[in-house]
Task: structure prediction
Amino acid sequence: MLPPSRHLPSLVQLRSLSSTPLRDHHLLLRFAALAKVVSDRPPPPPPPPRPRSPHPYDYNRLMSEHAASGGAGAGAYRALHLLDEMRRLLRRRPDAACFTTAAAALSSASKPGAALAVLETMAADGVAPDTAACTVLVGVYACRLRWFDAAYEVVRWMSANGVAPDVVTYSTLISGLCSAGRVAEALGVLDLMLEEGCHPNAHTYTPIMHAYCVSGRINEANELLETMIAAGFAPSTATYNVLVEALCKVGAFKEVDVLLEESSAKGWTPDTITYSSYMDGLCKAGQVDKSFALVDKMLSNGLCPNEITLNVLLDGFCRRSTAWAAKCLLECSAELGWHANVVNYNTVMRRLCNERRWLAVVKLFTDMFKKGIAPNSWTFSIVVHSLCKLGKLRKALCLLGSEDFVADIVTYNTLIRHLSFLGKADEAYLLLHEMIEKGIAPNDITYSLVIDCFCREEEFLAALGCFYQSLEDGLSQCAVSSIVQGLIAGGKLRELQTLIGWILGQGFIIDVCMFQEVITAFCKKGYCRGIEMYKVCHILERMLNLK
Result:
């Protein structure tokens, strides 16, 4: 059970409870008590910097420990450092397991290029790939890069060269296909592995179930679960967690209760992720009291709430009461004995944004720095948005230039959007180039914002230049919509006709709705009544040729 509220510092009651409705005091006190319990739990000891011996087995074991313990890619790069240490300093050739561990860690850290480089080094060193190494390569191609032709080629090479694909290989390929929405193709791979005599397991079926759930096909997910059980493939806790999350999203909490009640009979045990997912769904549905009540059930089942559970409840409290009370909690975290982290701060700052308390966001950001909590890209995106809403765009741009700033696509899009509102097209375009130089790829929204801004400023040549630049990443219907609507609004129908001809000439396909807008614009300008009627007919012909 949680410690009683009387042990909480009176400072919390004075600063937080005074701004919180009386009915929510007990939730605030319970959260504060739980925060202390989670913070008092000692962290796991870090892995040692060096293995006990220079043997590849000991190095591989230590690399695995670092890969599992490091966050945000740090563990993966530590594993890579140990691999390089073996090769360069000790002049010992790592075995296939060492290369595989490093490549898998980098792939898990979303560093597919570095993972491929490790596997290429493995081949250059003359180390023959085994099934595990090839499976990691399949994962890089299918799950990270989505180069499915390359992934299939690896599987074919394995079969032809005596390195038989196993259940992990096929399950990895199925996972990549499902994440890309290619469920039918994934089912084809499942049939293939059965033909090859490779028996699937829970890890094989779980990605398929997740794909069904993401697309709202919960009935099919339930049918797949029953098929697994009937075929003797026992679903894992991870499989059930996927179903619990999907049921929570549609508000089917009674079905979740039934799943939890029948868990023992069906041979699976709910874990912290199960309960955290359930709590998150309850909080989003406004059932915060029930979400907090699940904490006692977790504890009675021998499960310890973790940082994710704590953040779910913090978000739930913000939804139930106000983000202001949660802000006061964060500011009192030291007195509470709560080691608040960047995710907690981001959660409350996001809720403060929803309440339009922009200045409170900036103050909480300052409190983070005073406590030595390192912000991440999400933090900066929230703060930049708040500064822009406060009319302090220049301060937001100055923040972008600071050494500690970690920007991402959301941060840049936020700044470009506000520059666009102010009609500063040239500055928005400079930001677009800056993000490209920093290796941050623009998306559809980025290009659309810049094109819209140029069109509003009647800088149509610059807008067209930005549109052509966007084509380097393929045709974006958002960018097409922006340039077409901008040219129509500016009365540049001659340029619009030329642009559409060029786009179609390059083999791109334009959305039918976009053609309707273009034809309507030509007709409003009187083209249907004059000698230039052929221009409208030409566009219609091009449209019909697409079918």
Residues 85 and 178 are 37 Å apart (CA to CA). The chain is about 70% helix and 0% strand. Residues 3-14 have pLDDT under 50 and may be disordered. The two ends are 66 Å apart (CA to CA).
